Amino acid sequence: MRTSTALAPCNLPSYISFCISKEGNRACCHMSLQHSLKNELTLNDRGASPKWECPEPFALRISCGARENNRTRPTNTLWLKDFAYTGGIPGKVKRRSYIAPPLPTLRYFPLSVGPENCYNINRIPNGHYSVRVFFALVDPDLEPLFDISIEGTQFHSLKPGWSSVDEQSFAEALLFVTDNSASVCFHSTGHGDPSILSIEILQVDENAYHFGPQWGKGTILRTAKRLTCGNAQVAFDEDYNGSHWGGDRFWTGIKTFGQSSDKPRSVETSIKQASIPPNFYPAKLYQSAIVGTDDLPDLSYSIEVDPNKNYSIWLHFAEIDPSINGKGQRVFDILINGDVEFKNVDIINITGEKFAALVLNKTVAVNGRTLTITIRSVRGYAIINAIEVFEVIATEFQTSAEEVRALQSLKNALGLPLRFGWNGDPCVPQQHPWSGVDCQFDRSSGKWVIDGLGLDNQGLKGFIPTDISRLQHLQSINLSVNSIKGGIPSSIGTITGLVTLDLSYNLLNGSIPESLSQLTLLRRLNLNGNFLSGRVPAKLGGIPLHGASFNFSANAGLCGIPGLPTCGPHLSTGSKVGIAIGVFVSFLLILGCLIIWWKRRQNILRAQKLAAREAPYAKARTHFVRDVQMTRPQVHDHSRVAADNGPRLLS
Hints:
It is found in: Membrane. By secondary structure, the chain is an alpha+beta fold.
């Protein structure tokens, strides 16, 4: 039996937990390092009703699709814009439940942006949290159906008609945050686009809803039902002036269980032992109740649940009936699906007085689709103030963080289309693994790992990154029939467990890495239909003799194995570099000679043109000189001239 008088410390970072006992009552709270004990906790003279003044818990509220922060009335609650948290498309709210936050925008995720979309929220202090997601409609005539997961564990699936039932307009879960972050994901089921109104992450006590040995960091509690009995009004903890450490729970009001003979009771008297750790229930919750009558002293309530699950049931009682004043006047048994779980419950006997809260908890396995809670009268009439039912969900083991990072790098390098999504965890929830990824659970590490990639014929146009080798558990890689460019990374040769490698019909170039020869388990290698060149590694050429199937065809530059052209003299890498440098230098010399010859030729042509232009002037000048010489007087050496010209005449 678990009661509100058995308290556990609520541990928070930066605060010291402490407990004190007085007259049999044990009370726990947190003392700030900057405050004294007397400012944190005060006990009255009887010690039964401590005054709790704990520090405010962490709270984060996101208005989905909002471009700026805003506040909502009447509580002036701050809602943050959802910039940089996720993808999707912002839109206007067309219809929402009246219990939902009065926010004007939402964010929806059409299938074209991927089947999985997540809000990745960082910088959350590690601790215990209530996470609540409200839904709304972007089209009032289309009600989407989708699944919701948190930290890789699916905890809720929307059912047809949810938009017409107030308490189905949100999903809520209690979980532990251990790495300062939370990932809330929405998984399309092919029935409309997931549309999200808001996300709340509210810190609760470290020991809130401690239901037994299964409780802890490996467990999520999904809220299946919360009822406040004897009161037809719905309410949040905030409406009841409850402590913020309660997580602002939503309570559906129910005035009767539908039995014509039960009746509501309500009082204004203050309730003791209510708003205390670890669950901090508001006192007002216990001021109303449903009570049996003479005609039907018993009470019974049934809810529909998912079969073959465990459910944690929390039942709330306070003796508020003025006709009951002492022990033994009201005694009852509590049955769950016909089995007696609590026998001879006497509220006053357990709490020690009237108007004091009593909480009983029991976790049961339910095989059918109905959970029935019966308060069977032993003496007097049955009574119940409130009911909480949680589905107990074991958290999924997550994928190795190293391999998740490697997949994200591969996503970016290959230019994966948006329709693939690839958001959140690739392997969990197991109902929604990433498309094109095969997973296997590694028992040695307690993590999921990636053992296969099947992305053939998907229109990929990027390149294969070298850090694909970080996916060390791969057994099969199929990237065939795409437009992947670049070379084959030599790092693939370090994936020692690889059995199948199909890169056929892409635009790959360069040589085949020698490191592929190290893949001793490789049995299928398809590199055909690319632009690869060079010698096929000799070891690869010999492996097919041992039962493997290798295909190197339709690569015009490959050589060296039967079925391919014979390679020329084998040159080392250094030789190839030397030849390349020699060819380049020769090219520069030839180019230099051509430039010199061209310049000399231009000079000759220029001189010839200049001579051609000056030729007529030179000829005229020559004639002029000759004429001048002929007309000039001959005054010297006449005798020589006469003798030379012929015989002398006698007179």
